[in-house]
Design goal:
117 residues, mainly alpha, 0% strand
Length: 117
């Protein structure tokens, strides 16, 4: 139950921040929450991966469906014929990778500061 509440709180904060600020602010939010909540590094990495990966995947799907895939087709042509599905999955993969690394960074930062005292 505690893990679900943690995921919901971090997800809500990331969604709120990404509405008004640049894309990379979600990484800072995940790192800060991982540090402030003192989440273990393995859990912080999993939480960050899950949260940012799903958020970016669903947002990329939403954008693709709202413009009937026009932008994804044009971007795919720039990248030598990638399909919209490949671009959307790559966006989700980048979210998983960066979310996991930001959660891990926040968690390990706290461990380093505690050991430094």
């Amino acid at each position: 139950m505690k893990n679900l509440i943690t995921i919901i709180v971090i997800s809500a904060a990331c969604l709120l921040v990404q509405q008004y600020l640049p894309w990379w602010t979600a990484l800072i939010v995940i790192a800060l929450f991982s540090a402030l909540m003192k989440i273990k590094p393995s859990k912080a990495s999993l939480f960050g991966s899950f949260i940012l990966g799903t958020m970016w995947l669903f947002y990329a799907m939403y954008l693709n469906f709202t413009n009937n895939g026009i932008i994804a087709n044009r971007i795919g042509e720039l990248f030598k014929g990638l399909s919209p599905a490949q671009l959307i999955s790559f966006t989700g993969f980048l979210g998983v990778l960066m979310g996991g690394l930001s959660g891990l960074t926040g968690s390990l930062f706290v461990k380093a500061m505690i050991k430094g005292k």
